Amino acid sequence: MGSVELVRTLADSGSRRAPLGAAPATTTRIPRATYRVQLHRAFDFARATALVPYLARLGVSHLYCSPALRARAGSTHGYDIIDHTEINPELGGRDAFEALVAALKANGMGLVFDVVPNHMGIMGADNAWWLDLLENGPASAHADFFDIDWHPLDPTMANRVLVPVLGDHYGLVLERGELRLEFAAARGELSVRYYEHRFPVDPHEYPRVLGLAVNPSARDQGSLELASLAAAFGHLPPRDDTHAAAVDERNRDKEVHKRRLARLAAEHPETAAVLQRAIDRVNGTPGERGSLERLHELLEAQAYRLAYWRVASDEINYRRFFDINDLAALRMENDAVFDATHELVLELAASGKIDGLRIDHPDGLYDPAKYFERLQQRYARLAEAQSSERAGATAPRRLWVVAEKILAGHERLPESWPIHGTTGYRFAAVVNGLFVDGAAKAKFERTWRSFTGEAIDFTEAAYRGKRTILRTALASELTVLASELLRLARADRRTRDYTFNTLRQALAEVIACFPVYRTYLGETSSRQDRRFIDWAVAQARRRSGAADVTIFEFVRAALLARPPEGSAAELAGRYRSFAMKFQQVTAPVAAKGVEDTTFYAYAPLGSLNEVGTGPDMFGMTVSAFHGASGDRALHWPHTVLATSTHDNKRSEDVRARIDVLSEMPAAWRLLLRRWSRMNRSKKRSPHGEPAPSRSDEYLLYQTLLGTLPATALDARALADYRARIEHYMVKAAREAKRHSSWINVNADYERVVTEFVGALLGRLEGNLFLDDLREQVARIGWFGALNSLSMTLLKLASPGVPDLYQGSELFDLSLVDPDNRRPVDYALRQRFLDALVEMASGSAEPLGARVRALFDAPYDGRTKLWTVWRALDVRRRDPELFERGDYVPLQARGAKAAHVVAFARRYEGRIAIAVAGRLFLTLLGEPDRLPLGAQVWGDTEVDLAPLGQRTTLVNALTGEVLQPSAQRWSLAEAFATFPGALLH
């Protein structure tokens, strides 16, 4: 078959799909490639369904959706689930979900579901489990569902939960009349309302209200029934009686009494009126303090304490998702909780409607290993029940599962976990590192220090960021840990003299020094876990100014769950429980202290400040990339390969642009100086210091270089862009927590920062800074686009399951959420793909020439879409090669060898070869020049000898043919018409 015929075959295959159908539930279906979409009211199941034919044609095998269970009304992300038993009605509900599944199957595709096991949305008035807990406290049927410390050090909070929801101090809110007792007549239920929030009244306390309405001398039926009900409610078991019989009695009888009260109100309007007058007496009169005493006493008698939202950081006694008060953590180690939250999802998986699960934030779980084991076991049980086949009991990875796990460079994912890998943060770090010139690290750090005046390195900055979080947002979590550690210390006479304050300080030091997000101590501890704990304790001891450093040996023993020799089993269990609880705290501290603080305050090269990496990973050598890829192929061949996600600080294309600065450290330093002088007069000093700060100004300039469109802007487009940057810089200032924060907003500083951005981007004409910025973007954007093409090609050929984030099949210059959740123009993408398919099937001129012509409009994204479509087509035609194939590094030789990355995938005699360029500014020098031909590559070759005997290979990107006799492949030939090659 000639090359033209081969190219036509490639093009034709884009419209044919091997039907996946509804695979038996006993078969693990590994996605070939996924496409992530963010579902919400404006992009629901119907819109996702309409997208399916396009995605199928593009070449992905699975739609990968954000959480789709019932979330809080109006949620834009779905991670605030309030009901795990229902498909989100705002997305179209079960019928629309089934239509989506049907459309996917009709197009030979499947679905990957995002599962949120760590937490759910609370507050408001829509989470039945949380409302039941507020009503009944420890006697609630859901008391063990949420991770609550029912016995904190403060004795007034015993068997109560702090609810930090008020917008001001409790007494002021009460006196303004913002808290109001209400009666839901249809349900026979008393609640306190605060705007959209509802707080149920403990039924045992109803007599406080009903008693005010009872007239002892009245003998009418309504009055007698009301008196009877007041007595009945008063005889309910109190909420601190948690014996099974008492709990059953309370939960049964309270509902009986409520129904009686509802019936009474409906049948006797005069009694209902009397009850309402009693409620009015309890509510009192706003501003009259004495009249509010009854309402205050009623609230004090509840299983909750309403508090100002700022109190949360110091006194909250339920575990949250990070520091978000309205996301409460679940006790997923409880079988009842697991079953209640996973029944629907696993039923959908077992019936073949879902092919895989993304598990959100497993580091928040008490025991992730056991969670994954339970997940696979429950799935296997359901799958066997729905299949006539007997599933093998020795198949621990039956369901494709990936975990949202952030790994340090020196950390390994536990291979004993019955999952298929992670959601791809590590790959994003590794592949991005290829486009960063590691030799420039010291120069960038010097430039950063010189411009900002910052004297510390990243390690110290990260340590300080974590200490800041432990002092502020997560101080209460630290207090809970220290309280339990104090109890352990008091249990042994050799450690009882350690005080609460010294224990709290020691724990804070260890957490701030922790080298990974968390350890995974279970019934035993791994060597890796012990090494991380030993390192953190040693660093904490070194940093500590404590007079008695022996406390760190006690802390180390507690973290390793090693009680004193000869301890009773009960104490040993408490040690293990403490160690497990400790592990749930280090991850949010790292995330908030580093990702959401340090990354905005320390940014010599902003493209490195990303989930799963950081400024200390300044570049990745080609040999290191090969090592990471080979290890992944061997140990985690079905993990996700991500380059952009909904959690990214910057999209892959923004990072690819900023990476270019690493190749021009001297020019970047001069550019900073010029822009700083140019814009000095635009700064203001609201509190004596020029604003924005030097570090914020530095971050802004890199952000502008990374995101300004390289195409022409009109006034409206500039205004839209300016608004995006203004919002981003306000968020960045709050995250950095130096001049403003989410907890203590500095409106003056934020106003000045916004005005500074406005001055820089205020108009198109007569704007010297914008003119200069556009000139720089025209240069850097060219090399950044080349970086993006190479990054895309490497991802789509590497071991693992490549994922595309919504819209990223074209160049996408988005920043952190909510910027990366803006609407995607899918009509444009479909038109582009249609045109590319038509272009590929034409024969008027060689395909290579047609592909090269795409660079006539280099920033419209068609070059990237072409790369995605052609590479996914190769994966589609030979899925086994990419699912099971070996990874073979290929060496480049010659003068430009440092600018090449090449490798092969090999399986049962079949191969695919990927070759991509890197460090293009250094290679080319000037923009508007493609890295093609002998003039650029000279004598540089790729050594194909490790592949042995071959058949004819065709470059899927250009249609060019490689003859089988070649042992070396000239880069001048490989990159004759396109700056990348994928042979198959």
Describe this structure in words.
With 984 residues, this protein is α/β, with parallel strands linked by helices. Among the domains are: 34-122 and 331-423, Alpha-Beta Barrel (TIM Barrel), CATH 3.20.20.80; 128-325, Maltooligosyl trehalose synthase, domain 2 (2-Layer Sandwich); 462-598, no CATH class. It is 46% helix and 12% strand. It contains 35 helices and 27 strands. The strands form eight sheets. An eight-stranded parallel β-sheet has the order 16-15-14-5-2-1-18-17, with helices on both faces. A four-stranded antiparallel β-sheet has the order 19-21-22-27. Helix 26 (715-736) runs antiparallel to helix 27 (747-760). The two termini are 14 Å apart. The relative contact order is 0.08.
Short description:
Helix content is 46%, strand content 12%. It is an alpha/beta fold.
SSE blueprint and pairings:
Elements: H1 3-13, E1 34-37, H2 45-58, E2 62-65, E3 69-71, E4 81-87, H3 93-106, E5 110-115, E6 119-121, H4 128-136, E7 161-166, H5 170-175, E8 180-184, E9 189-194, E10 197-200, H6 207-213, H7 221-234, H8 244-267, H9 269-283, H10 293-300, E11 304-308, H11 312-315, E12 320-321, E13 324-329, H12 335-350, E14 356-359, H13 368-386, E15 400-403, E16 421-422, H14 425-433, H15 441-452, H16 458-471, H17 475-490, H18 500-512, H19 527-543, H20 551-559, H21 569-601, H22 622-635, E17 640-641, H23 652-659, H24 665-678, H25 694-707, H26 715-736, H27 747-760, H28 768-797, E18 801-805, H29 826-841, H30 847-852, H31 862-877, H32 879-884, E19 886-890, E20 892-893, E21 900-907, E22 910-917, H33 920-924, H34 934-937, E23 941-943, E24 953-954, E25 961-962, E26 968-970, H35 971-974, E27 980-983
Parallel strand pairs: 1-2, 1-18, 2-5, 5-14, 7-11, 14-15, 15-16, 17-18
Antiparallel strand pairs: 3-4, 6-13, 8-9, 9-10, 12-13, 19-21, 20-23, 21-22, 22-27, 23-26, 24-25
